[in-house]
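> call design_seq(struct)
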């Protein structure tokens, strides 16, 4: 796959001929490769991924009521390719190598007007020689071992101005499952299950980040459940209690570089524990009528007392709740120990009622659904500006099926009361602010109505 991203301004003609990052005294401007697309910002990735796996499972019915299950899987995943970037600026004093005032001043930038050149700052933003130290700039780079997943130091193409480097990594794991099911009678099923899961690693590509590789994710999942029928089989209940233990869970974060737009990158959380309960019930009090009730409780928490991360909306770690102990002083980094996993609402409720009318032409089913979702954080930084409020929604549906099952006509209304629902939320920080105080909401769809026709050819 290839994924180029470009931000350009063809009317800013200075971008067409960038110069090197050196003091721009008269006659000392070093021209670089032309920039015919007038890009401020360009990133690209040309990557390939291959996966190979084998799986086997066996079921053993020990008795008429007891069944044991065991399975193993081997997975091998490889990803590799080349990432490239070029980043250019125009009119930013920090990148011109001379003061606006004081000894040696050539005056403020505005006196140069349209003659002020654009500057290629890519080498200032990456570590082209190999493994960076904490500063992550060329003067702070070493030529020691390359970062995991990086196969060679970045190189410059003098014809295009692109800095590129090759990436490659291989991940593998043996996973499996084991469980037991007990069916003491025709109306009951009780089970216990353990599964070992695996998710391949990957790369944060395109921007030549300091450490591009994301480690593979592993999961130990434990589940106990029961399925029963009651009241002459008019009531069915399914309940499950689960405990999930993740190692190196992959979670996305928005990262704001020194120049260019913010990017989303994946980071590993050392340990995440998730546990909860799920309840499903189906009750048929009378013929042709059903009432469904679903409830879920989820507690998903990060357990990581060593790793540090920077909150883009609180980059200086100024809030009282910030856990800065053990992080590099002055870096703005903080720990996220005991923070809730993004988009993991504690409670969720769904109620559905439906009734089917049966007559000679066919059947008509009327259905109404109520959904309530608890508030949830949308970032590993559990702050007020990342908290999405709780919301509810009502959906309606009417479907007609002809007696010969040749066609169906469906009328539907989603979110019929047009209530605000929150798909995601994130803090927004103005350049004049130290901490994000605004919120940007991603909303669920508004009231939506429609009709659908299905025809079956037999």
């Amino acid at each position: 796959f290839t994924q180029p991203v470009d931000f350009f301004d063809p009317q800013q003609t200075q971008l067409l001929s960038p110069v090197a990052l050196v003091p721009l005294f008269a006659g000392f401007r070093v021209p670089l490769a032309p920039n015919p697309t007038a890009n401020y910002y360009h990133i690209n990735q040309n990557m390939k991924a291959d996966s190979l796996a084998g799986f086997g499972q066996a079921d053993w019915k020990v008795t008429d009521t007891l069944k044991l299950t065991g399975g193993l899987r081997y997975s091998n995943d490889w990803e590799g390719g080349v990432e490239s970037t070029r980043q250019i600026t125009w009119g930013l004093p920090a990148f011109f190598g001379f003061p606006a005032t004081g000894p040696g001043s050539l005056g403020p930038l505005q006196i140069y007007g349209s003659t002020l050149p654009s500057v290629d700052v890519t080498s200032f933003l990456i570590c082209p020689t190999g493994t960076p130290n904490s500063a992550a700039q060329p003067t702070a780079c070493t030529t020691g071992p390359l970062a995991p997943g990086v196969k060679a130091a970045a190189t410059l193409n003098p014809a295009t101005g692109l800095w590129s480097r090759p990436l490659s990594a291989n991940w593998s794991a043996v996973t499996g499952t084991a469980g037991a099911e007990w069916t003491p009678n025709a109306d009951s099923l009780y089970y216990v299950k353990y599964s070992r899961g695996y998710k391949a690693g990957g790369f944060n590509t395109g921007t030549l980040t300091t450490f591009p590789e994301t480690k593979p994710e592993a999961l130990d999942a434990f589940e106990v459940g029961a399925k029963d029928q009651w009241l002459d089989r008019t009531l069915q209940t399914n309940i499950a209690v689960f405990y999930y233990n993740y190692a190196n869970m992959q979670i996305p974060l928005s990262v704001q570089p020194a120049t260019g737009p913010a990017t989303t990158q994946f980071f590993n959380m050392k340990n995440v524990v998730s546990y909860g309960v799920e309840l499903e019930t189906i009750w048929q009090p009378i013929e042709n009528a059903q009432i469904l009730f679903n409830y879920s409780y989820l507690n998903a928490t990060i357990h990581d007392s060593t790793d540090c991360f920077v909150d883009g909306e609180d980059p200086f770690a100024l809030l009282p709740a910030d856990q800065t102990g053990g992080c590099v002083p002055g870096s703005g980094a903080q720990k996220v120990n005991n923070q809730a996993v993004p988009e993991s609402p504690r409670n969720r409720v769904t109620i559905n009622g439906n009734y089917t009318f049966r007559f000679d032409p066919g059947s008509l089913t009327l259905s109404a659904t109520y959904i309530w979702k608890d508030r949830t954080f949308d970032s590993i930084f559990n702050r007020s500006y990342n908290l999405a409020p709780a919301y509810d929604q009502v959906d309606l549906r009417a479907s007609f099926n002809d007696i010969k099952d040749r066609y169906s006509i469906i009328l539907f209304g989603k979110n019929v009361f047009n209530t605000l629902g929150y798909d995601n939320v994130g803090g927004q920080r103005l350049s004049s602010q130290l901490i994000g105080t605004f919120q940007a909401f991603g909303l669920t769809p508004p009231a939506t109505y429609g009709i659908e026709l299905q025809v079956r050819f037999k």
